[in-house]
Automatic annotation (TrEMBL):
Organism: Astyanax mexicanus (Blind cave fish)
Identification of the protein by name: Formiminotransferase cyclodeaminase N-terminal like 1
Top-rank taxon: Eukaryota
Stretches assigned to the Formiminotransferase N-terminal subdomain domain: 8-190
Single annotated GO MF: folic acid binding
PANTHER family tied to this protein: FORMIMINOTRANSFERASE N-TERMINAL SUBDOMAIN-CONTAINING PROTEIN, FORMIMINOTRANSFERASE-CYCLODEAMINASE
InterPro entries: Formiminotransferase_C_sf (IPR037070), Formiminotransferase_N (IPR012886), Formiminotransferase_N_sf (IPR037064), FormiminoTrfase_cat_dom_sf (IPR022384), FTCD (IPR051623)
């Protein structure tokens, strides 16, 4: 049985364009859980910080109730904008903003996607009004009325280009993107996991072939999987965004025989591809080119893990949960 707090939780997997200065990344995380006087902001927690040196990108998992999430994320974003200069950024992962991505995900039964969409819009308004020079585009339930997905909006903004043309980008809110702050994607959707599988080759062409085969839009692709192949420490990483899907998507033969984990948003039941299925498909496809896999990494948690850990952290008033998370039994 979910606690009353658990029924109102929202997660934000904040993506910032910095991973090489640990103290900077942690100061952004601290801003989410402390007020301007350095006092603990009750009802908020940072569950995890995932940083990748090569990508020069960190993902900070912030969780709070729907009434508190916007202010916590605003403070983290404002801190990141004050410390990160995109004009100096170097990394192999595509990005357009110092704060590159701000997705809101409902975790509790009494929070719906429309609620999260409104909070995302409110955050964008606050940022562009209070951190002058910032700008954003909307996706998902913040993109009213079209509800275009993140991948589509990124294509429209030129996010996938090796050197994005900021002058050609048209933000939904705020001024033309500046070189310092860049452009931020802000939105809301059902929970999206990040699952990265490393294949043991420097050959990006092999990686792109694997990525194309498992992408949702490809024949035989895995439902809900959006994917890129990126160079990573002398190998290639198959970097997957694993979106939540409804039951109808599970009729595809590509779903495999393993049950897909399920979770609920309101009266809707959603599913996501298990990491084991993605790993198995990548392993099979890579082997056809004589390439092995090195390992799989989840960036953060599954939806149910995120909610369970957030309730534990908040029940015990632990803001810096990321510091103790790896010592706990999952």
């Amino acid at each position: 049985m979910a606690s009353n707090l658990g029924r109102h939780l929202v997660a934000c997997l904040l993506n910032i364009s910095e991973a090489r200065q640990k103290s900077l990344v942690e100061s952004v995380a601290q801003a989410a859980i402390t007020d301007k006087h350095g006092r603990r902001r009750k009802g908020t927690t940072v569950l995890n910080i995932f940083s990748d040196y090569n990508y020069n990108r960190s993902v900070i998992t912030i969780v709070a109730s729907i009434t508190l999430i916007k202010e916590a994320v605003f403070c983290a974003c404002a801190k990141a904008f004050s410390l990160i200069d995109m004009d100096q950024h170097v990394g192999v992962h595509p990005c357009m903003g110092a704060v590159d991505l701000v997705p809101f995900y409902p975790l509790g039964e009494e929070v719906d996607l429309e609620d999260c969409g409104k909070e995302a819009q409110g955050l964008a308004t606050a940022l562009t009004e209070r951190v002058l020079g910032t700008s954003a585009f909307f996706f998902g339930w913040a993109d009213v009325p079209l509800r275009r997905g993140l991948a589509q909006r990124r294509k429209e903004m030129g996010w996938f280009q090796k050197i994005p043309n900021m002058a050609a980008s048209q933000p939904d809110i705020g001024p033309q993107p500046t070189r310092q702050y860049g452009l931020t994607g802000i939105g809301a959707s059902p929970y999206v996991m990040n699952c990265n599988v490393t294949i043991n080759t420097p050959d990006l062409a092999v990686g792109r072939g694997v990525a194309a085969a498992i992408r949702e839009s490809s024949p035989g692709g895995i439902p809900g999987v959006q994917v890129m192949a990126l160079p990573h420490k002398g190998t290639v990483e198959i970097a997957c965004n694993v979106e939540s899907v409804q039951m109808g998507s599970l009729s595809s033969p590509a779903v495999g025989i393993e049950p897909w984990p399920a979770f609920s948003i309101g009266d809707r039941t959603l599913f996501h591809a298990p990491a084991s299925l993605i790993t198995a498909r990548v392993t099979d496809l890579a082997s056809r080119s004589g390439v092995t896999t090195k390992g799989t990494a989840l960036v953060g948690f599954t939806p149910l893990e995120c909610r369970t850990l957030a309730q534990r952290a908040l029940d015990h008033d632990i803001g810096e949960f990321w510091k103790i998370m790896h010592s706990l039994q999952m």
